[in-house]
Amino acid sequence: MGQDPLFLGHISLGVVLIVVVKVLVAFVALLVSVLLMIWFERKIISDMQNRIGPNRAGPYGILQTLADGIKLFFKEDLIPEKSDRFAFKLAPYLTVIPAFLIFTIVPIGGTVHIFGHVAQLQVADPPIGILFLLAMSSVAVYGTMLAGWSSGSKYPLLGSVRASAQMVSYEAAMGLSVAAVVLITGSLGTRDIVNSQMGSFFGIFPKWNIIRLGIVPFVIFVIAITAELNRPPFDLTEAEQELVGGFHTEYSSIRFALFFLAEFMNTISMSAVIVTLFLGGPDGPNLGGPAWIWPILWFLIKTGAFLFFYVWVRAALPRLRYDQLMDLGWKILIPISLAWLLLVGAMQVSKVYGFVLFVVFLIGGSVLYRAVSIGRDNDSDVETITTFTRIKFNDETSIEGSNEGDN
Amino acid sequence: METSLILAAIAKPDLITFIAAAAIVLAGAFGVVASKNPVHSALSLVMTMFGIAILFIEENAQFLAAVQIIVYAGAVVVLFLFVIMLLGVDRREIFSREKLRGQLPMGIVAGVIALGEVLLLAKTTWATGAKASTGPVGNSVDNVTRIARAVFSTYLLPFEATAVLLVIAVLAAVYLARRVVVEHNEEEEIAVAIPEPDDSDFGVSISTADYSEDFENESDEEVIDL
Asked: What GO biological process, any one, is recorded here (chain A) (predicted)?
């Protein structure tokens, strides 16, 4: 149960070699896909904005990222005099490593037989599985936080405080929607999660978690992930008009490149995680040819669709304001995902329970919503600003709005 | 030489892992005590947490390892860092002067006693009545399932009590953090809560890594209008 067949027998040198090869292949594949992803993003956005985009280096400008990378390598590496040198140098690595490690638990295909060993097409399948994702995404906060603090400058610090508050807040919603998946699977392992989604309802609809759980946890997870990645429309971290460049303002050369790499690596890893948790991972019909190739292809197609989705969102949506971001996270996503988790639990016990609970939630939720809106109308002039929001508040308009309300 | 090392590591993975993890734990613990800068101390603490997580994994307690990282490294120390960064306590402190008389010898004595106690407990079956054992109790059910069964059946009451306690703590913290001054509004005869007046309009003092050597100089604390 949740056990990698590779480690069941005697662990010989061959097994160790297979593991090393798996890690290397995953790392190189991720790096190459980051190169392609940056090009893809720039190309798609320029198409959406009716311009050409990179078109000089290589066919269709596909080597542009490589050229940029080489340029960044040879730029001067600056360390600000007032920075904390140790933390300043440590921070980029603390962002890159979790980004890669998240990808290691994603199953990208079925199982293959190599040299008499059965190997799963995923770097690792730990029994804690998806908890590893939560652990790594909570460790990723350190990179952002330390980068901003150690720069010894105001804007990076503000950017990093925003980023880490945002990441910590959205982790709760993310964890709760993951909990719904774990509840229906009955296991934490990513391989088990993928296996439980194989098959179909009535032979037409795939038995993916997006359908089995109702669409709500999926939507919440995607929103929380976007906030976790600091991608638009949640890229308050690097709001150029307000914060110069965000937490990596003071970084240059290869250290800046590492932050950039981590951002795109995280986007790819998280898209892969979404596919694993809600879209059946490598599940899909076999359309002929060698059997092992179709799961990988389906996985790549689904992940690519999500990458396109992220680029699309970036091109289409304006950035949220900070208080809107916090409201969305704490007041909307967390209550809904909690209620939905209870609902999924009740459905597991019995369908009658589940539907009764659903009706209760519907009535209770609408009564609560009405009560809150009446309360808001009645004393819209009573504004309570807690210390927490005062630290976070960076929007003059809402503070002015509250002052108007007082008069 | 290298192949023989790798072969040794394959032959005795537990020993090698333990030595590496123990070195990480000890180095981190030393760093917590020895660093002058509180942020560096907090980072060393994270390193210790990771070492302990590796030790848990080596003992086949994967769930504990994940919880160790998520709760301690991911939440507790992040809050430490928030406090250090936002409240600006990252000034270099003087450790040369002892705050208590005879602090150092008493500390050494306490350390030796604690070490002796740990060694004694490791040798005997006194603490839980069973000798320490590694690995899961049986191979039929995995560790996570076992923990879940125990928490939601045998230890349900303590578990729920802890949950309630945490909710109370959160509510209390939110209540204490609200700094609201209720003023009397003469025109409409209702109590209007307005934020407490502040000298620097909504200013928050945030200190950065920029600490100068002379810590008496207060100018390194920057007041930023948010």
From this structure: aerobic respiration
